Amino acid sequence: MTWATREIAGWGRVLRAEAALARPERQRTARALAESAPVPALGRRRSYGDACLADRAMLTERLDRVLAFDPETGTLEAESGVMLGDLAARLAPQGWLPPVMPGTGFATVGGAIAMDVHGKNHHHAGAFAAHVDRLTLATPGGPVEVTSDDPLFALTAGGLGQTGPILKATIRLARVRGDVMMVTERRMAGLDTFCDALDASDAPYTVGWIDATATGPALGRGILEEGEVAKGLVPPARRGRTVPLDAPGFALSAPVVRTFNAAYLRRVPARGRTVVRPIADYFFPLDKIHDWNRLYGKRGFHQFQCVVPMDARGALRAMLERIGKAGLASPLAVLKRLGPGAGHPMSFPVEGYTLAVDLPASDGADRLLGVLNAATVEAGGRVYLAKDSSLTAQQAHAMYPGRAAWAEAINARDPERAYETALVRRLRLREPS
Amino acid sequence: MSAPESTPESAPERAAESATGSAPETWLVLGASSAMARALARALANEGAALILAGRDDDDLAALAADCRFRGAASAEPLRWDARDPATIAPLIARLERAEGKVSAAVFAGSMPPQAEIDADPALIDGVAADSFTGPAQVLSRVAPLIEARGAGTIVGVASVAGDRGRVGNYVYGAAKSAFATYLSGLRNRLNRAGGHVVTVKPGFVDTAMTWGLPGMFLVAPPEAVAASILKAARRRRNVIYTPFFWRYIMMIIRAVPEPIFKKLSI
Lengths: 433, 267
Fold this sequence. Notes:
The complex is a heterodimer of chains A (433) and B (267).
Chain A: E1 4-9, E2 16-22, H1 27-36, E3 41-42, E4 56-59, E5 66-70, E6 75-79, H2 84-91, E7 96-97, H3 109-114, H4 122-125, E8 132-137, E9 144-147, H5 151-156, E10 166-172, E11 174-175, E12 180-188, H6 191-200, E13 205-210, E14 222-230, E15 241-242, H7 254-267, E16 273-278, H8 279-283, E17 289-290, E18 301-308, H9 313-326, E19 333-338, E20 352-360, H10 363-378, E21 382-383, H11 393-399, H12 403-413, H13 422-426
Parallel strand pairs in A: 2-4, 3-4, 15-17
Antiparallel strand pairs in A: 1-2, 5-6, 6-10, 7-11, 8-9, 8-10, 12-14, 12-16, 13-14, 13-19, 18-20, 18-21, 19-20
Helix pairs in contact in A: 9-10
Chain B: H1 15-19, E1 26-30, H2 35-46, E2 50-55, H3 58-70, E3 75-80, H4 89-98, E4 103-107, H5 115-120, H6 124-150, E5 154-158, H7 171-192, E6 197-203, H8 223-235, E7 240-243, H9 247-256, H10 259-262
Parallel strand pairs in B: 1-2, 1-4, 2-3, 4-5, 5-6, 6-7
């Protein structure tokens, strides 16, 4: 296996690494690599921070085939590098969808398991790993089949790749009765209205867009989107666009963002509206602009995402106040309800409200992230490690109480720590205490 | 040596081509485990073709076949074929004979051991010649009568820019690919009389396992782009294509360097 040296970056482009990368194209070569030179696997590197960085790694992007699909039962076996957006595009016309879809269709099956990703249906469907029947791990001793009742499965789901590369997985798809999304949009006047509406919503897919620049009485205003899959005329697919270069600093400066946010809010009439959208536009709104992360300029950006318990609305309000007051442009802020967690020690989703905010890199952003991280610990919440670029080890350890036991089990399997990624090292996730 | 003729065929499509009815076109893909072949097989699957995926890595071919069926192939089956084992040819041809519509074939086979290894053990030359030229040619010479009998069908042969001029770095591989290109030229001449067509494809650097991590790579093309240009060339009945297109001009320059100078270069 040949290694290529490349500079790689998290999606936020703040954290970077020079890495020796192998890129097997076949199961056979991936197995051989895992046996001779165990390294962590990387997918399409859509994690924002350093969860997708390592000195040495195996890229799964060429392990990208669907190995079996039963259109009767909706069971699908795929290699780990298959992208969820590709699956959605192929499956929707046949009445199926991936059971959980994160905000980007470029996420791979392997990455979706390793980060136990959640989607707009978490309150009904849980996170991705809940829909995985079995997976195959590449280990130095050969491939290992792991079924969902195996203790190794719980270590792997949300396990940040620390149980070794996933070669393939069998997932149960979701039955849908159409191939477009019917989306109802409603304006939300403030945070409490918003949280109440999220609690009350029983739509299959629910997400809130929140104006993180609003302060005072408007704090927490935004738009609630409730979606369901429907039959209808599919608007013609538009071709993706690419951001050809890094945007200048003023592109996402505070006045621009405030104006944009206000306009975005007014787009939805006061009485609400229902629109029909192509599935990909609904689930992966930003994917149409390839490399949209370049809009944040050369310095890149952070995405802060936390979940706080249901009774911590006050903490959420305090965070939004800090964000609004900081005046750091953050056009994309998302508020969602998460349902009960799956119980896997390193899996992010637990019941509560999750808030996600983009912050262009700056010294002010670093300070704000420090405040938000501390507030999350305080509120008994946790930060999503697939997004993180700024936690301290101590904070991470406090947020994931099952971590120490997980680390012990992981270290027993991989004493050389061959699968450590930059994130795992930075947050000392595999340290005993 | 003159530059290969490459203007698109202007003759109207033969009647026989439309007479094959609604049965899907059957494509035999030789060396189907390569990244370029995978991309072409998927593009063909997307168009609803029937696929016979031939090569040595049974597991990988089975995976590709499943993926092609998922992507819309009328059918996709793996078949074992070893360029160095003539006994593996007959089952391929028997399978093609059973196909109802038009039959076509695409060859991606080839091997390129490091030239230093060949210099140390010249017996390796046989293997390179078998993988890159004689093995695939023996299959194509048996596919040709099927195309002649049906009055339609396309053969896509992947040669290489390495075959345009012998270089110190890979001249055995280049020689085998050059021989294959010459064979394809003759086969084109033969099949043209019967309504068939042959496309010679000369890829430059393509982003595959063969080039991953090699020093000195530039303007590396994704396999999907190569597959798309191959399909376009087949539809337009082009004779010889370079892919990406600019390799035609790079190779024009390289061929134009006088031998007294060329022999001193290390490119």
